[in-house]
Design brief:
Region (Disordered): 1-23
Oligomer: single chain
Distance between the termini: 91 Å
Protein name: Protein ZBED8
Strand content: 5-15%
Shape: flat
Number of strands: 5
Largest sheet: 5 strands, mixed
Biased composition (Basic and acidic residues): 8-23
Structural class: alpha/beta
Organism: Nephila pilipes (Giant wood spider)
Helix content: 40-55%
Order of helices and strands: HHHHHHEEEHHEHHEHHHH
């Protein structure tokens, strides 16, 4: 070999493996154009083929989308795929699939890369959009008692209105409005985006830290962007609307709420009511329909409750 980029006591042919003694004595110049290819091949690491990398990305995407643990790729998906391919296509095709990297660390890194790529696309679309965007914030506490700030954006991209999840960042200390504003400023500064100049509307919950007249987050934003429109989230608006309903509607709503709470309070009540609906061929027990969709369904619900009450009283 050329001594200009390799220094060893003996030369090795391209097809010959190097032992540990030879490996310790090898010195390669990083400026050499063949440094990366030679180093990867001689150390036993082949250059990954594009289909193998793309396959691992696709599997990682589906694992993340289905909210499954990262280890499922190596412990379940890959063994099943290998067995199916061997039975259907043969042993040679199985050997090709064995080269697909699906370890826990690989899946984790693939998911991180996919997430970073999606975030980059959203930021680029926000910058390229000729129209202002809207933003919704929510501060919540997870199971580890850590406050998390969730941010969603709605914007126009290529004549299409998009609504995307932007980021989630922990509030490590206090959850004041200044802390929320600081996280937003750091995030958008990192991506070189002047969000206050392009923000049109802001949606938050009814927490004092968000809507306080003097130190709330909305007030701090309006100081620097006076034209921003501040609104409540839809759940907060619904809660406010229920307080101003007419008496007749409040009576009906209170009965429905008490009934639902009674059914949901105990697992036995829920199982009995579910069985009753199945026996009566209920049409409104699907996940995409609600009782208040139409008056006919409401009447059906009330009639079933009457039958159920009679059954409970009779001990059936």
């Amino acid at each position: 070999m050329d001594n200009g980029w390799m220094n060893s006591e003996r030369e090795t042919t391209p097809g010959e493996e190097m032992n540990s003694r030879d490996l310790k004595k090898v010195t390669i110049s990083e400026e050499s154009p063949v440094f990366e290819i030679w180093n990867i091949n001689k150390l036993g690491f082949g250059i990954p083929q594009k289909p193998l990398v793309e396959a691992s990305f696709r599997v990682a995407y589906r694992i993340a989308k289905s909210k499954k643990p990262h280890t499922i790729g190596e412990t379940l998906i890959k063994p099943c795929a290998l067995e199916m391919v061997e039975l259907v296509c043969g042993l040679e095709q199985r050997k090709k699939l064995e080269a697909i990297p699906l370890s826990n660390d690989v899946i984790q890194s693939r998911i991180v890369e996919i997430s970073c790529n999606i975030l980059k696309q959203i930021i680029n679309e926000l910058k390229a959009s000729p129209f202002p965007f809207s933003m919704q914030l929510d501060e919540t506490t997870d199971i580890s008692n850590c406050s998390q700030l969730l941010v969603f954006v709605r914007y126009v991209s290529a004549d299409t209105i998009k609504e995307e999840f932007l980021f989630c960042e922990p509030l490590l200390q206090t959850t004041k409005a200044v802390d929320v504003l600081a996280i937003l400023n750091v995030f958008f500064s990192k991506h070189d985006f002047d969000w206050k100049q392009k923000l049109h509307s802001l949606c938050t919950d009814g927490a004092p830290a968000m809507l306080g007249n003097k130190s709330g987050f909305a007030h701090l934003v309006k100081k620097e962007a006076p034209n921003v429109i501040v609104t409540h989230c839809f759940l907060h608006r619904h809660a406010l609307a229920t307080k101003t309903l007419p008496t007749s509607l409040i009576d009906v709503l209170s009965i429905v709420i008490k009934t639902v709470n009674f059914i949901r309070s105990r697992a036995l009540n829920h199982r009995l009511f579910k069985t009753l609906c199945q026996e009566m061929n209920a049409e409104h027990e699907g996940p995409d329909t609600t009782i208040m969709d139409a008056s006919e369904k409401l009447q059906a619900f009330l009639s079933k409750m009457s039958v159920w009450k009679i059954r409970i009283q009779n001990g059936i």
